[in-house]
Amino acid sequence: MAGKFSFSNFFGMTEDEDYSTDLQGTKTTDEVSPTSRPDNIISMTAAGNAKMNKIVLCEPRIYSDAKKVGKHLLENKAVIVNFTRIEGAQASRIIDFLTGTVFAINGEIQRVGEQIFLCTPPNYEIDGNLSDIIDQNDFDSEVN
Question: Where is this region: Disordered?
Answer without folding.
Answer: 21-40
